[in-house]
Amino acid sequence: MFLPGKLQPVSVAQWFVNCKFPSRKVVVFIKPTCPYCRKTQEILSQLPFKPGLLESVNITVTNITNAIQDYLQQLTGWRTVPQVFIGKERLHRQTQ
Description:
Strand 3 (about 85) and strand 4 form a beta hairpin. This protein has helices at about 10-20, 35-45, 65-75, and strands at about 25-30, 55-60, 85, 90. The chain has three helices and four strands, in the order αβαβαββ. Helix 1 packs across helix 3 (about 65-75). By secondary structure, it is α+β, with helices and mostly antiparallel strands. The radius of gyration is 14 Å and the shape is globular. It has one domain (about 10-90): Glutaredoxin, CATH 3.40.30.10. A four-stranded mixed β-sheet has the order 2-1-3-4, with helices on one face. Keywords: Disulfide bond, Electron transport, Redox-active center, Transferase, Transport.
């Protein structure tokens, strides 16, 4: 449980991101209005994942979206979404 005023947004962002990293699960951090996120979700949804092994995480449903993106940048060097992880390993971003 988080008590107001007890944790900084970065701490909450770290918890929010890190709790999504169970081993062997594919996690995609997204913003639903992002066309690249929608395309990534479309591609991943066509793959034969076992139930529960693919999770899309909408980072805009919190009031700490910027802190989440800052923490993703600390982890990966990229602040933008989508970001796809298998366990704690990020899939490398395609630039073209």
